[in-house]
Write a structure and sequence with these properties.
With 137 residues, the protein is α+β, with helices and mostly antiparallel strands. It is built from three helices and ten strands; from the N terminus they run βββββαβββββαα.
Length: 137
């Protein structure tokens, strides 16, 4: 994962290896630098610094969409997220996409990509809760 893909508020997964034990932590990006990313899972926590090599994206799934502010369409092939359902995300065989036109589409594979795209469209944060991310994953 590259730090240029991230922004403050993104949710990612960190892997901690200690004494042959591997622990995964889901956290919210609170600070970004060239050599690391700080993650927090508490609102008032300053965060723990992780190297870029220890940070991984969270795969976007239908279960995650079900916990967002979304509505399934009558046809069941896309999700409406955000205020007034203005952002239509289609679920196709090759993943999730936002269709700009019949020939141009923006694919999504990870939670942080959807968060960044939604923010670029609306200037608002997509409501993602770390508690249910932990439950789903």
């Amino acid at each position: 994962m590259n730090s240029s893909e991230l922004r403050i508020g993104n949710y990612v997964k960190a892997v901690i290896e200690r004494d042959c034990d591997i622990t995964e932590l889901i956290g919210r990006v609170s600070q970004i630098s060239e050599d690391g990313v700080w993650l927090t899972n508490l609102k008032n926590d300053k965060g723990i610094k992780f190297g870029i090599g220890d940070i991984f994206p969270i795969l976007l799934t239908e279960d995650i969409f079900r916990h967002l502010d979304y509505r399934e369409s009558f046809y069941g092939d896309f999700y409406c997220i955000g205020e007034n359902g203005m952002c239509h995300i289609y679920h196709q065989d090759d993943g999730f996409v936002f269709k700009i036109s019949p020939t141009y589409r923006v694919p999504f594979e990870f939670v942080h990509e959807l968060q960044n795209f939604y923010y670029a469209l609306t200037y608002k944060e997509l409501n993602v809760e770390v508690e249910w991310l932990r439950y789903i994953l």
